[in-house]
């Protein structure tokens, strides 16, 4: 369990710290390339959907039966739906609109600017908290995937890492506008990503050192449900907004094709004990 926890921690750190990469988009450029972020989000959505349906849910149904596999899968959907109900969705829209108004100078005045900054700062903090709460079950997913095998853990971590880059932008952009501090924007985005390895640590001590194969497959089926809901509820709408529906859908299928190839070649390349 110790070695599995170290592997899961390393993989979750890759995913969690990718929010820092998103923050770099903000602090190193005047305006982030929103279309590129949308395509990246669509690509990550394809990775996640491929993992959810073609790997996690598929294996759970084959291992523990159609009924139990589906119950676990939709249990994961309901679990994450309850989390999403109480967490504001990350958005990049308001802060960029406010920034544009500030540049144009219409509806101006210092008092109005201060009010906008307070509102945007509050929005950024709420978004950071929300993304932290979202990252927590993602860390749990990486840990459970790593228990199943390196192949599952690596692919989950890759998909989550790509997904977290736009989330880092969603945190850093309003914080940077409100505080005019690149360091504060980068720091808060990075901290929100560190909730992911925290999820690994907590879930590692919640579960016994050895899980029955049936429970493990069921939990992985639930992880598939969580990932599917996260993809359809949050990632695809953002991809459509930023890149347009046609381009985003193309990116989704490219992501699915890449993940299918990755699942195949990684399984071939890993030693049997790690596969």
Automatic annotation (TrEMBL):
One of its GO terms (molecular function) is zinc ion transmembrane transporter activity. Keywords: Membrane, Transmembrane, Transmembrane helix. The chain crosses the membrane at residues 38-57, 69-87, 120-144, 156-179, 185-207, 219-236, 248-266. GO terms for cellular component: membrane. It is a multi-pass membrane protein. Pfam families: Zip. It is found in: Membrane. It comes from the Eukaryota. Residues 95-114 are annotated as: Disordered. This is Zinc transporter ZTP29. It comes from Brassica oleracea var. oleracea.
């Amino acid at each position: 369990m110790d070695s599995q926890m170290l592997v899961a921690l390393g993989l979750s750190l890759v995913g969690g710290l990718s929010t820092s990469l998103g923050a770099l988009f903000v602090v190193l450029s005047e305006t982030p390339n929103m279309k590129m972020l949308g395509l990246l989000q669509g690509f990550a959505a394809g990775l996640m959907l491929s993992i959810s349906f073609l790997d996690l849910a598929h294996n759970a149904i084959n291992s523990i039966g159609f009924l139990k596999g589906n119950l676990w899968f939709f249990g994961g959907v309901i679990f994450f739906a309850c989390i999403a109900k109480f967490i504001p969705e990350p958005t990049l829209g308001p802060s960029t609109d406010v920034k544009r108004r500030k540049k144009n100078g219409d509806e101006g005045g210092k008092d109005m600017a201060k009010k906008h900054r307070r509102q945007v700062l509050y929005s950024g903090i709420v978004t950071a908290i929300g993304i932290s709460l979202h990252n927590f079950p993602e860390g749990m997913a990486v840990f459970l995937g790593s228990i199943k095998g390196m192949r599952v853990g690596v692919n989950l971590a890759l998909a989550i890492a790509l997904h977290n880059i736009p989330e880092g932008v969603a945190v850093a952009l309003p914080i940077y506008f409100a505080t005019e501090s690149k360091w504060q924007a980068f720091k808060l985005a990075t901290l929100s990503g560190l909730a992911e390895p925290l999820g690994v640590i907590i879930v590692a001590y919640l579960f016994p050192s050895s899980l029955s194969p049936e429970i493990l497959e069921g939990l992985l089926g639930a992880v598939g449900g969580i990932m599917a809901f996260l993809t359809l509820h949050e990632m695809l709408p953002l991809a459509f907004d930023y890149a347009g529906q046609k381009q985003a859908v193309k990116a989704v299928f490219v992501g699915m094709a890449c993940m299918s190839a990755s699942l195949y070649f990684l399984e071939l390349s890993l030693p049997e004990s790690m596969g």
